[in-house]
Structures are given as structure tokens and as C-alpha cells.
Amino acid sequence: MFTFTQLTSFVAVAEELHFTRAAQRLRMTQPPLSRQIRQLEHDLGVQLLNRTNKSVQLTPAGRAFLAEARSILRHSERAALAVRQVSTGEAGSVTVGFTAASAHSTLGTLLSTAREEVPRAEIVLREMVTRDQLASLANNSLDLGLVRPSVTGPDLVSRPAVKEQLVAALPTTHELTGHQGALKVTDFEGQDLLMYSPVEARYFHELLISIFRSAHVTPVYSQYLSQVHSILALVNVGLGVALVPEAAAQLRYPEIVFKQVELPTPAPVELDLVWRRTNDNPALHALLRSLWRRMP
Fold it and tell me: What's the pLDDT tens digit per position in 188-238?
């Protein structure tokens, strides 16, 4: 079988149609170049060049082989480039988990950063609640998670990505929509509240329980749901009020009014970036370095 050295030698001679010029182009002497061509012809079992004292011409077989030789060399160059890009993180694949609510805030920043900073890297998205993301990180099917804190684990690294306010989502016919200024936590006393699931949406469930308990407020928990968009869909049909991350107000529902709420802790809703300390995916670390330059 032929070697890349033989292919390179043949292409140089075929393009120059002159052994001396081809040898100069390859920065070698003519005798070893001639030996490479003879060995290539022997290995292939065909004559590629017609040689005389005055000229070098391609045979029909040589013309056909020249196109193939060029193609093989181009593919090998692309393969080498691709390997180098993967090793530096310029290319490759990063699987990212995200919660539904994060799709309206941090996910956009992550995707725009990836497009601009590591455009050859493929970003594979997986919508999951925090609990499922942590399980996927543990079994190596996820590279990076956008999760709600707090996250613990000997092999996990987390970094705050964003903090945002909670806002009230109210049906347009609700009495609190006419309230002047920001609402108070006490305004939710006795209100039918669409609540987060204590299992699938534990972070938001515990956050709201803490807020209401501290204010000695007792809403009526009418339904328990795991996803923000599901909660908003029920608010839209008038089944209750809700507290949702401020970014969710970007979702426009015809029968919902969003209002600010005075809370004891400004911007209490947190979202973290989480990954495994032992993850050696170069594309992941290239993406993280780019994100650190953009995130506060």
C-alpha cells in the first residue's frame, strides 16, 4: 500500500512535470524522489509517468490517480485539523442540560457565546429538571447543567450563573392587578396559589415555602406543578396566581398580568452552572472559559 510520502511526491511531480523542480519544491534531492515514484508505481502495479530525457508526462492512469491522490491528501489535512481543533476545544460536542425557566435567561447567553467563541463546537440541548440533570451528570451523559442550587457532590463543580427576582403572575381579572405599585408577600394571604412540586421543582417549592413562612402568610395551594410554563398556562385560564422567575415574564399570555413583589431578599432566584470536575471534554472547558469572560 502506498504512503503519504509517496502521494506527496507523486503530486509534486505530476504538477511540475519535472523531477528537479518537484524535488526543489519538496526540499529534497532528486534520487530519493525518483525512488518514491518508482516504489509507488510498483505498489500500484501501473505506470503513472512517461519519462524521457526531455520531458515527464502523465499516463492515463497517472491522470486518474492524480485526482484521487489530491483528494486523499486533502482529507488527511482536514482530519489532522479536526483532531487538533477537538483537542483544543475549538470543535467537538457539549451536551447541555437546562430547566424550562432557564431557557428564558442564561441559556440564551450560553448559546450566543458558543456561536461566537467556539463556533465549530456542537451544542446538544436536553431539557430536564434539576434532579434529572444531576443524575445525567453523574452517569456522564451530560457535560454541563443549568440547575437550581444547592448542588453537592465530590465530583461536581458549580458556579452561579444568574440571580433574578420573583414576580407575580396574575389573571387579568384578578383583584390584585389593580394594586398600585409592587405587591407585598402579605397580599397572597388566602389566595389560590399555583405551587411548585416538592419533588420535581423542589428548589422553587422550598423557596416559596420559606418566603411565606417568614411573612406568616398562608396561601391556598391549589395545584402542584413542575414547570414554569405549565404554571403560567393555568394562570392564563384563571385557575390561580403564581410567583415565577422574572425572566418568565418574557412569555406573553393574553390573560396574564405580571407585577413586581417586595421580597425580603432581593433577587432570590439562583441558577448555577454545574459540571463534573473529572470531565476532560476540551470543548466543555473552552465553552466555560468563554462564559467566564461574559458572566459577572
Answer: 999 999 999 998 888 999 999 999 999 999 999 999 998 898 999 999 999
Q: How many residues does the chain have?
A: 296
Instruction: Name the range with the highest mean pLDDT among 8-17, 85-94, 215-224, 282-291.
Output: 215-224
Which amino acid appears at position 106 of this protein?
T
Q: Which domain holds residue 286?
A: 91-162+271-294
Q: To the nearest 10°, the Cα dihedral for 18, 21, 27, 28?
A: 40
CB 195 within 8 A of CB 223: yes
**53 strand-pairing partners:** none
Q: What is the number of structural domains in the chain?
A: 3
Assign residue 236 the CATH number of its domain.
Answer: 3.40.190.10
- Dihedral sign of CA atoms 93, 97, 100, 102 in order: negative
